[in-house]
Design brief:
Elements (H helix, E strand, L loop, with lengths): L2 H29 L30 H4 L10 H13 L5 H16 L6 H15 L7 H17 L5 H4 L6 H11 L8 H20 L11 H16 L4 H12 L4 H13 L6 H13 L7 H6 L7 H8 L2
Helix pairs in contact: 1-3, 3-4, 4-6, 5-6, 5-8, 6-9, 8-9, 9-10, 9-11, 10-11, 11-13, 12-13
């Protein structure tokens, strides 16, 4: 999909949403007062107690939660439903956000799932782009959907990319993230920061989906994500603590031998003697108390006795 086509789709969705909202307001106005003058409410907006909202926020309309797959060229109600679900992914109401996320996931992958072209459009032009939005809680909502889709697409037991979606390989999907969060040209400062944060959240989705340490895939997936995290942390120092935290999260998925492998990679990438490196080593030693290291690793890891004199300086960075 070209940028022009995407812009046209966005305009059409905005117009559809406006029309739907206008119809809803008209309906509510018509039903606001009964024949005897008493107030009534729209059944779709009513809570169990008769209020418009519960303490957790408004209940989503049944139309949005309908078990129905997305289509390639959505029109009318289908377009309104899709646009509203993605709009709710940015909601600050956690309940609404999670319900919308579950509805989007089922609308893409339930049953036989959508065609590859449809899933690719949603990944590329909806989800990865949404990570770069600074609106409300958008990154939280979009991350939930992406983590689950990546898990089913690229990890066991489904491994959907193997048979059903052969064009959505790990390399291609990661490439979508990097393209949609690419920073270039003379961008406003806030837009640039949103893109960097989007890239960070996207890489974290790959880690949380638990698809980086699959034996039959080898270490290439993890190596590439680690390289991108370190590159991002080095380029934007203010994001380095968050990048380090994502690496630390990955350790929970590993056995002792692989934890040692990751620590050695951090030495080679120059992250051992950094505040983030100290934090990662602490997590590693807590997870593997009997962790032993060879002489080379002992020389470099920040908590080795020979390096204690440097530790205060490292933590002041």
């Amino acid at each position: 999909m070209t940028k022009t086509a995407s812009a046209k789709r966005k305009r059409a969705e905005r117009e559809a949403l406006k029309a739907a909202d206008s119809n809803k307001r008209s309906k509510n106005s018509h039903n606001a007062t009964s024949a005897d003058g008493s107030n009534t409410s729209d059944p779709n907006d009513a809570s169990d107690g008769g209020n418009a909202a519960t303490k957790n926020g408004p209940r989503l309309p049944k139309m949005l939660l309908e078990k129905k797959l997305f289509v390639e060229n959505s029109t009318g109600k289908d377009r309104v439903r899709e646009a509203k679900l993605y709009d709710l992914l940015s909601s600050e109401n956690e309940s609404d956000r999670l319900e919308a996320a579950a509805a989007i996931i089922s609308s893409l992958l339930d049953g036989e799932g959508v065609p590859e072209a449809v899933l690719q459009r949603h990944l590329d032009w909806r989800l990865f782009r949404g990570l770069a939005s600074g609106r409300a809680a958008s990154r939280l909502g979009y991350s939930v959907v992406l983590t689950e889709i990546l898990s089913q697409l690229l990890g066991p037991p489904k491994n959907l990319s193997r048979d059903k979606y052969p064009g959505l390989t790990f390399e291609n999907v990661l490439g979508m993230l990097m393209e949609r969060t690419h920073v270039g040209g003379n961008m406003p400062g806030q837009e640039e920061r949103d893109l960097w944060f989007g890239q960070l959240f996207g890489l974290e989705c790959f880690v949380r989906a638990r698809i980086l340490f699959i034996p039959e895939e080898g270490p290439e997936r993890w190596n590439e994500v680690l390289r991108l995290l370190v590159k991002l942390g080095n380029k934007k120092v203010w994001l380095r603590p968050q990048c380090g935290w994502v690496v630390a999260q990955a350790l929970a998925q590993l056995d002792r031998n692989r934890v040692e492998m990751v620590l050695q990679q951090l030495v080679e990438l120059g992250w051992a003697k950094t505040p983030e490196g100290v934090g990662i080593w602490l997590v590693a030693f807590e997870q593997c108390p009997d962790l032993s290291s060879g002489d080379h690793a002992k020389h470099h890891h920040p908590l080795a006795s020979r390096n204690l004199g440097e530790l205060a300086g490292i933590l002041k960075e």
